[in-house]
Amino acid sequence: MRELEELTTVDDPAWPALEALFAESAVPPVVLPADDGEARRGLLQLQISARSALGGLVLNCGGLLVDEGWVRVYGAGSSSERRMPSLAEVNAFPADFDPEWHPAPSLVVGHDVLGGVFALNGHDPAAEGRPGVPGQMTYFAPDSLEWEELRMGHSTWLSWLLSGRLEQFYEGMRWPGWQQETGALAWTEGINFFPPLWSEEAHADLPATSRKAVPMGQVLGVAVDFARQMGPADPGFLGTV
């Protein structure tokens, strides 16, 4: 086990480079203030240093709001009025460091307002029915109820999020006025659709669906229930929000 000081006191921390990325990006994120206690808990349990992009986020910020809050990237959490949960909370880390505990089969690092899940693969994704290789980002798509391989690591994923390419990634999944609806959400909420996103009706005409802000846990729970009942497979852990 590496102690907290060893993880935080490094010669080449990632945070200055991340700050430069945020400032220069096509879609500058909102950087939330960090909860110091959750930062320490997250970094210690993960046993990653501030040299990594993930460690830099967990240590230095409460999280990121990308593209009007459409995507939430988790860090140390923030206790502001709309409250951003921490990476440790989302992944149900133990209250105190436990060397036997590991996130499995992947580490949830972000959600979008649709209930899409961005997760970092663990050491054996194939054994868990996940696509991609260890250390690679994946996405649980709420319109198909399947995991998709993103073919990039965590730091490249951060750059991709801020590159302006989300519009293409979410083509057909946005509607007129989505910015206002997304901006009004608490950071523990998502959008529930009826008919649901995976239905033929929603695929044919998303703007005609009925939409309602609900707790993100409800959005994720409904997706898990339908995936188990209708296939293609149980998606597993999607995060605790």
Helix content: 25-40%
* Structural class computed from helices and strand pairing: alpha+beta
Give the biggest sheet. Answer: 7 strands, antiparallel
Point out poorly predicted stretches. Answer: none
Order of helices and strands: HHEHHEEHEEEEHHHEHEH
**Tally of strands:** 9
Radius of gyration based on Cα positions: 17 Å
Number of helices: 10
Shape: globular
Give the spatial strand order of the biggest sheet: 1-2-3-4-5-6-7
Tally of structural domains: 1
Termini, distance in Å? 28 Å
Mean of all residue-level pLDDT scores = 94
Binned strand content: 15-25%
Organism: Actinospica durhamensis
Pfam families: DUF2625
Protein name: DUF2625 family protein
InterPro entries: DUF2625
List keywords for this structure.
241 residues; alpha+beta; two-stranded antiparallel ribbon; 18% strand
SSE map:
Blueprint: H1 4-8, H2 15-24, E1 30-32, H3 36-46, H4 53-60, E2 63-66, E3 71-74, H5 87-90, E4 106-112, E5 117-121, E6 137-141, E7 146-149, H6 154-161, H7 166-169, H8 178-183, E8 189-194, H9 200-204, E9 210-215, H10 216-230
Antiparallel strand pairs: 1-2, 2-3, 3-4, 4-5, 5-6, 6-7, 8-9
Structure commentary:
The protein has 241 residues and is α+β, with helices and mostly antiparallel strands. It has one domain. 32% of the residues lie in helices and 18% in strands. A seven-stranded antiparallel sheet has the order 1-2-3-4-5-6-7, covered by helices on one side. Strands 8-9 form a two-stranded antiparallel sheet. A hairpin with a 4-residue loop joins strand 6 and strand 7. Helix 3 packs antiparallel against helix 4. The radius of gyration is 17 Å and the shape is globular.
